[in-house]
Amino acid sequence: MKIAKIVSSNSHIDYVARVLDARDEGAPPRAADHSFGQFVSVAGEDEKVIGVIYDSRLVNPEYGSFGPKLAPRAAHVNPDFVREQGVLLGILLLGVISSDGRSVQGVPPRIVPPGQDVIKIDADVVKKFHTGSDGSIHLHYYSQVVANAGQFAIPLLDSIIKQLSETCTEPEVQRLEVLRQSLTWQGTFGGIKL
Question: pTM value?
Fold first, then answer.
């Protein structure tokens, strides 16, 4: 399901997307479709780039313009100003799934151009992205999240661990729980400097 379009980036792995609304094609996504910690994909040249929503911003340029006006608004709508209000998402890229189905976690090699569709992915694709060739769960992007998600790093990793725990075997759940407890301890006692 399409939920947004890429509009800009803050870095090679930190992208900004605008949530689709009623003026876009089809029905707009529900709020649950673009919530914190939702995994998404963006089509690359010959792969799917996998990311996660870690931030959001409301855009409303008219908020501060409630003062007196010198002239009434024009009766026609200028197309450049149709979509002034909206929701922007911060998407942190975590890796790729190549055309042959192989998952590679880390910094994607190529940039994502503006205008690309952001697709909500289901639990099966999320699990495939996190499962290594040995069949175990991997989070090789852990340090990437800590370095780039700022104040949202700990809640984001906690959200990811909870999602992965729902589809894992008991030994994997235990490994993830140890990681989650370590993360909680680091956040509580300042091990992670944000």
Answer: 0.84
